[in-house]
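A protein record pairs a chain with a discrete description of its three-dimensional fold. The following entry can be read in just this way.
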Amino acid sequence: MRWWPYVLMLSVGCGASASTSKVPSPFTEEDAELFDNAVDFIESPDMLRGDWGNDLLYRLQRRVDRSDLIAVIRVPVLNTNTNLDRERAYHLDVAVEKRLRGNPPDHLALRVGEEERGFGSIRSAEERILSERFLVFLKWTWDPVEEQRTARWHLSLASEAMQTTVSSMLGRGASQRQEPKPATELGR
């Protein structure tokens, strides 16, 4: 029976519950598409018609459903860093103006690397990002290498129309929702 304390130590030290307790829910393949570390400048869901409009509303609803944090923010500081491997990344320091869901940390910084799809959306709109207000849709993930949670996110313009749409989506219960089908399911 001398082995019993070692088995107990292994079961406490190697459990996956340590990482899963630090993020509210698992990060899925769908989440990777929704939380793409990118920005869009669509002022109103009504701007797009047909399949594009349906796809926008579907993605917006899924972001609302899957987000750990939704807030109105500003980006007062936008930095570009280059590491020793010459890989560039943007770091966006975020000022939370209004929380819609979840609790933001005391300091919220968003990152997007050059290898990520959203990098180009930041690079092409640096000045505009510093001058606009956005809705941030944030999903926490667990980084097992760094042993810390990291943010995956999407920014949408915080126009009055977008804020009204998101508030409406937040106010509806799941049983009342009539989710639009994504364009890929509409026979596009």
